[in-house]
């Protein structure tokens, strides 16, 4: 699973990255986590509100920082 | 609030918790002034007429009052805005012609939840959906200017009439400036990558699929996030305001920068741009300045310039607008703000 956290580096983006790392640790999943800060790439995903969570090139969430449980659910579903 | 934590998570439980929160808020708000009056002047024996007494009272009273009102406004605005998203705004604006598009974009800028860190991807997304450059700019001017912190503070410090004037003026500047820049046909000075970015994702709308519980919890979270981000600026602003309140003589500014002053508004706007501040830091100061005689038009211009032409904002826009276009943008918006400032000084004085 290739996970990307899209965002230029504001507090929200860092929080999403933290929540995602936490969720990965909780689920014990093996995945690479990449931070994408390059604007053209972010926009290329069709994302207009950062931060956004992309798993295997599919945008799962954008525009807000979800609670840790929600990230876990999203990742668990994606891994299945 | 352990009592609230024990209430069942049912509909009735939720309503009770909401009512309890509201009651606590109201109580705190009403008791605020009396608390400080008693503590400072009765219990500690400070002289209410002294500069020190005035300043400290102002600082404490204002901090609590502003804090409480910000909590309310941020919660309410975030909750209402959760029904909108940049994605929905884009579909509403795509392909619209200018004029109507500018008005719509400015209005949507007010109600759409928007973080300025998303300005660049949003810009690209708008352009890709066929939203004209000028219309996109109207959105990008209105959105930071009419933010919930500004609204909350204005309501607290000046009441709803001034708040309405600010929103109206902000919309006017956003619509006009966006329209003017659009008509100048300066697309050649937009960074090329904006037009070249190929969108290959599906649009994920953050506003879709949220339950009432989701909205309440994200609104509550936003209150925490915003307050944690702005509290240093807020305290600094209130601090400076307290000093002004206590130490600068009344009507000081009427002599030097009153409504008849030719340069007052211009100076205010020029000072505002490099001010690395935001609405939270500036508005408490503004209230104190107003009490000392600075006219409301000048202050409105100052506040608008601080949020619409802030240096961080412009640095961000530089990513998508080449220097000539950025310069035109700043010039037109600044001109609009200055015009609004003079207009209101004239209206209020006459």
> Main beta sheet of chain B, described?
none
Measured on Cα atoms, how large is the radius of gyration of chain B? Answer: 22 Å
Large-scale geometry of chain A: globular
- Helical region count of chain B? 17
Helix content of chain A: 40-55%
Share of helix of chain B, binned: over 70%
What number of domains of chain A?
1
By oligomeric state, this entry counts as heterodimer
Tally of DSSP helical segments of chain A:
3
Largest interface: A-B, 28 and 33 residues
Highest CATH level, the class of chain A: Alpha Beta
Approximate strand percentage of chain B: under 5%
> How would you write the strand order of the largest sheet of chain A?
2-1-3-4
- List segments of chain B where confidence is low: pLDDT < 50 over at least 5 consecutive residues: none
The total of beta strands of chain A comes to 4
Mean pLDDT of chain B: 85
Rg of chain A (CA only): 11 Å
CATH topology of chain A: Glutaredoxin
Terminal CA distance of chain A: 11 Å
Main beta sheet strand tally, sense and closure of chain A: 4 strands, mixed
What does this structure look like?
The complex is a heterodimer of chains A (80) and B (350). Chain A has 80 residues and is α+β, with helices and mostly antiparallel strands. Chain A has a single domain, classed as Glutaredoxin, CATH 3.40.30. Chain A has helices at 11-27, 39-44, 68-79, and strands at 2-6, 32-36, 52-55, 58-62. Chain A has a four-stranded mixed sheet with strand order 2-1-3-4. In chain A, strand 1 (2-6), helix 1 (11-27) and strand 2 form a beta-alpha-beta unit. With 350 residues, chain B is mainly alpha-helical. Helices cover 75% and strands 0% of the residues of chain B. Chain B is built from 17 helices and no strands. In chain B, helix 5 (100-111) runs parallel beside helix 7 (133-145) and helix 8 (148-158) packs parallel to helix 14 (279-291). The longest helix of chain B is centred in the middle third of the chain and has 36 residues, at 212-247. Chains A and B meet through helix 1, helix 2 and strand 4 of A and helix 4, helix 6 and helix 11 of B.
């Amino acid at each position: 699973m290739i996970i990307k956290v899209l965002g230029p580096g504001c507090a929200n983006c860092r929080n999403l990255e933290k929540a995602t790392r936490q969720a990965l640790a909780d689920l014990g999943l093996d995945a690479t986590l990449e931070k994408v800060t390059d604007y053209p790439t972010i926009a290329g995903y069709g994302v207009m509100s950062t931060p956004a969570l992309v798993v295997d090139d599919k945008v799962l969430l954008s525009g807000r920082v979800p609670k840790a449980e929600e990230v876990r659910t999203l990742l668990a579903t994606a891994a299945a | 609030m352990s009592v609230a934590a024990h209430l069942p998570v049912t509909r009735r439980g939720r309503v009770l918790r909401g009512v309890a929160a509201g009651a606590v808020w109201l109580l705190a708000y009403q008791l605020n002034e009396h608390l400080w009056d008693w503590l400072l002047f009765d219990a500690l024996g400070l002289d209410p007429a002294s500069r020190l007494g005035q300043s400290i009272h102002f600082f404490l009273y204002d901090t609590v009052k502003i804090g409480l009102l910000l909590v309310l406004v941020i919660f309410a605005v975030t909750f209402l805005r959760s029904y909108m998203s940049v994605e929905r705004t884009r579909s509403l604006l795509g392909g619209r012609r200018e004029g109507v598009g500018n008005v719509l974009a400015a209005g949507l800028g007010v109600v759409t939840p928007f973080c300025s860190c998303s300005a660049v991807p949003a810009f690209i997304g708008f352009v890709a959906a066929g939203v004209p450059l000028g219309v996109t700019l109207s959105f990008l001017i209105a959105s930071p200017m009419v933010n919930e912190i500004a609204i909350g503070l204005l309501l607290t410090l000046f009441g709803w009439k001034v708040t309405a004037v600010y929103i109206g003026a902000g919309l006017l500047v956003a619509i006009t400036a966006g329209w003017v820049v659009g008509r100048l046909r300066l697309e050649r000075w937009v960074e090329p990558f904006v037009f070249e970015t190929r969108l290959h994702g599906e649009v994920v709308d953050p506003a879709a699929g949220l339950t009432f519980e989701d909205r309440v919890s994200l609104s509550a979270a936003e209150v925490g996030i915003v307050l944690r981000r702005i509290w240093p600026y807020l305290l600094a602003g209130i601090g400076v305001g307290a000093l002004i309140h206590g130490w600068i003589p009344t009507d000081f500014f009427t002599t030097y920068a009153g409504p008849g002053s030719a340069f007052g508004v211009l100076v205010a706007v020029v000072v505002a741009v490099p001010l690395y501040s935001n609405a939270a830091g500036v508005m408490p100061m503004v209230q104190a300045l107003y009490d000392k005689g600075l006219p409301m038009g000048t202050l409105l211009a100052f506040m608008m310039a601080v949020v619409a032409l802030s240096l961080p904002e412009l640095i961000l826009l530089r990513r998508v607008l080449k220097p000539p276009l950025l310069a035109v943008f700043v010039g037109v918006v600044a001109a609009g703000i200055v015009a609004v400032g003079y207009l209101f000084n004239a209206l209020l004085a006459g």
